[in-house]
């Protein structure tokens, strides 16, 4: 695999993992008001979408920052 693709995939995956952890932490510690009861399918869908939102945003930001700082 070319170095640039390996670099991009590893930085994107690392940022995605960091975003998953942050999204899970924020959702579980009630930093946001939750209108649905715990254990309902709507709550699980909302949690999954919320974690994906954090993960995709932080993943792209981590990749962009790595590309900016590691340019040769």
Structure report:
By secondary structure, the chain is an all-alpha fold. It has one domain (3-71). It has two helices and no strands. It has helices at 3-28, 41-69. Helix 1 crosses helix 2 (41-69). The protein starts with a helix and ends with a helix. The mean pLDDT is 85.
Average pLDDT level? 85
Low-confidence stretches: none
Strand count, sense and barrel status of the largest sheet are: none
N- and C-termini, Cα separation: 20 Å
Q: How many β-strand runs?
A: 0
What is the overall number of helices? 2
Could you tell me the radius of gyration in angstroms? 15 Å
Which structural class is indicated by helix and strand composition? mainly alpha
Overall spatial form: elongated
Helix content: over 70%
Q: What portion of residues belong to β-strands?
A: under 5%
Protein traits:
2 helices; elongated; mainly alpha; 72 residues
């Amino acid at each position: 695999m070319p170095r640039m693709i390996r670099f991009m995939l590893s930085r994107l995956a690392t940022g995605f993992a960091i975003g998953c952890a942050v999204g899970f932490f924020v959702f579980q510690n009630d930093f946001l008001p939750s209108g649905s009861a715990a254990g309902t399918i709507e709550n699980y869908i909302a949690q999954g979408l919320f974690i994906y939102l954090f993960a995709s945003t932080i993943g792209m930001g981590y990749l962009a920052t790595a590309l900016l700082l590691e340019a040769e």
